[in-house]
Design goal:
This protein has helices spanning 6-11, 15-28, 97-116, 131-141, 156-168, 179-184, 226-231, 241-244, 246-253, 266-270, 292-311, and strands at 2-3, 36-40, 44-52, 57-65, 77-85, 91-96, 123-127, 148-152, 173-175, 188-191, 196-200, 210-213, 222-224, 233-236, 262-265, 284-287. It is of the alpha/beta class. Helix 2 packs across helix 11 and helix 3 (97-116) packs across helix 11.
Length: 312
């Protein structure tokens, strides 16, 4: 079994290549059971996420989620990934699950935006400053011509620090303390937080906006209020979002949304069985809870590239 380190995992997950790999996997499909979720005392949660293509590859990701880690200057999520031969069960590789999780999450958001954001979308608002949030601008630049990035976080100093890093990498970026104003002037809003109370309000959204919610992957987590779901054409990464996301569950409970109003999944968009954005004025919403399909696509992309390097 190969041990593929952080640097190598990251090197083979460029966003253009990864978005393409996700699109192919969503179009082709694979077996994805519901994730296992286990509380770890009062402090954290363990997720176990398997996916496979019979006769090809099998992958299992473990994720630990400890929201209190921010007070310890540690990431809130840690993960590992194991890849197997699905015809023999032979272990093939252990990969850096943190890199796979963060990069495939950002890439899936960008893949959705390629269908749902206006073609001329140029102003991106990033809500959050964690590992995934920091990757969103580069991912979105792979599908849209992003000219300006605005960063908001509940800790203003973190927003300023991320904006400075983005500027250092050649992006025009700045932090804001006024979330309502930033939402009202954004073309794409991408939320990547562990928030447990809504941050984005539907009344702030302007026509033509694309709202991307990639936090809130458990029932107790929320990033947007019910009014966002009432105003938007709603898409999800997988149907599991209707069961797992606190955003969706709140909107259903408030009568602002129900499954009959769901416009489609990322698989349907990639398979061309569901149209994406229909006009320049509609407001679209992509709600993601993450899928083991995405992890498998990313792990295979890395593993195949490493093997190819060895034989070249």
């Amino acid at each position: 079994m190969r041990i593929i380190d952080t640097t190598t995992t990251r090197r083979h997950l460029g966003f253009a290549q990864l978005i393409g790999a996700l699109r192919r996997m969503f179009a082709g499909g694979c077996e994805v059971p519901l994730r296992h979720t286990h509380p770890i005392g009062d402090a954290g949660t363990l997720l176990i996420m398997p996916a496979w293509r019979a006769g090809l590859r099998l992958g299992i990701k473990t994720v630990t989620i400890f929201p209190g880690n921010s007070a310890r200057q540690l990431p809130g999520l840690h993960s590992t990934y194991l890849l197997f031969d699905a015809s023999t069960g032979v272990p093939l590789a252990q990969l850096d699950g943190n890199e796979i999780t963060s990069r495939r999450t950002a890439a899936a958001a960008a893949l959705a935006a390629s269908f749902l954001a206006r073609p001329d979308a140029a102003r991106l608002l990033v809500v959050g400053t964690g590992r995934v949030a920091a990757l969103i601008p580069d991912a979105m630049r792979a599908v849209r011509s992003i000219g300006e990035v605005v960063v908001w976080n509940h800790r203003p100093e973190s927003a300023r620090a991320l904006a400075a890093r983005l500027n250092d990498h050649g992006l025009e970026a700045h932090a804001t303390d006024d979330l309502a104003h930033a939402v009202a002037h954004a073309d794409i809003i991408s939320c990547a937080t562990l928030a447990t109370a809504p941050l984005i309000r539907g009344e702030w959204l302007r026509p033509g906006t694309h709202l991307d919610l990639i936090g809130s992957f458990m029932p107790q987590m929320r990033e947007a209020d019910a009014a966002c779901f009432a105003r938007c054409r709603v898409f999800v990464d997988t149907p599991e979002a209707l069961l797992k996301s606190g955003d969706v569950l709140d909107a259903i409970g408030a009568g602002a949304f129900d499954s009959a109003r769901l416009q489609g999944t990322l698989a349907a968009l990639c398979q061309d069985t569901q149209a994406g954005r229909a006009s320049d004025v509609e407001i679209t919403l992509f709600k993601a809870v993450g899928s083991a399909l995405e992890d498998l696509a990313a792990a295979e992309l890395v593993f195949d590239a490493v093997v190819q390097e060895l034989v070249s």
